Amino acid sequence: MKLKKLVWLTALALSTGAMAQSAPLTIPHPTTFDQLNKPAAEVRMPQAYVKAIAQQAYIWGYPMVNQFNRRATITQAPEPALNGGMVPVAPMGQLSMLTDYIKPAETFVTCPNQDVVYGLGFFELDKEPVVIQVPDFGDRFWVYAIYDARTDQIANLGKPYGSKPGFYLLVGPTWQGETPKGIEGVIRSSTEMANVIPRVQMDDTQADRVAVQAPVREVMTYPLSKFDGKMKSY
Asked: How far apart are CA 184 and CA 219, in angstroms?
């Protein structure tokens, strides 16, 4: 009896050890809507539960809807310009810069900074990567806020991060190309949609309004196919 019990325990230990060393169990996940398990027809969800799910879906999805709607509208501009003389607009893959502080009458940005020159551009990174041009701002504060479709910031590019002047490559989530010589760094977006909002500090003086124009004219983005290693300017 003892021998049988010992054999049984040994076999159990061996089988348990083999299971522990084997690959972890993977559960297949649906990849299409039709593969999802659906509730039975007689199941009725409480109204409070349905409202809670709807609220969560709205909060989760609204940033993306907002981003895509803005991109579809703003990129209709035939060239970099200012809509209503206030809001930067530009074709897909390019950006437009202000040359002064943002005007109080604008409503596109809810809480804008009051001491920077703004810019704005939208991209389709599944079509082609985009070169982001960073001029030498000297001691001036600057930052390029870059966002994906979820409005998550996807890069640390600016004076607070010790970024160097030069060229940076913004690519989509599936891009596998070669990085050209002369590119300081590669920024990968988690979505094909991305946008950039440069901010360049400017003193509220006539002298600095004149001085900031030179670097602002070199704040540009353009498709990788147009990159030649030379700093461009408007």
From this structure: 15
Q: State CA 108 to chain mean position distance.
A: 19
Residue with tokens 């989530």: 173
Token code pair at residue 25 = 């169990």
Q: Break the chain into its structural domains and give their ranges.
A: 71-226
Quick: pLDDT tens for 147-167. 999 999 999 999 999 999 999
State the DSSP H helix or E strand holding residue 143, giving kind and residue range, or none if neither: strand 142-148
**Average pLDDT taken over every residue of the chain:** 88
Is the pLDDT reported for residue 20 higher than 70? no
Six token digits for residue 160: 């607070």
Phi-psi region of 120 (alpha: psi -120 to 50; beta: other; left: phi over 0): beta
The 10s digit of each residue's pLDDT in 174-199 is: 999 999 999 999 999 999 999 999 99
Q: Contacts for 95-102 with beta carbons within 8 Å, 24 or more apart?
A: 95/119, 95/120, 95/121, 95/196, 95/198, 95/219, 95/220, 95/221, 96/120, 96/121, 97/198, 97/216, 97/217, 97/219, 97/234, 98/216, 99/213, 99/216, 100/202, 100/209, 101/202, 101/204
Where is 145: in which H helix or E strand? strand 142-148
| pLDDT given at position 10 | 41
CATH number of 71-226: 2.60.40.1610
Tokens standing for 139?
Answer: 């001691």
Beta bridge partners of 175: none
Question: What percent of the chain is predicted at pLDDT more than 70?
Answer: 88
- pLDDT band (50, 70, 90) for residue 24: low
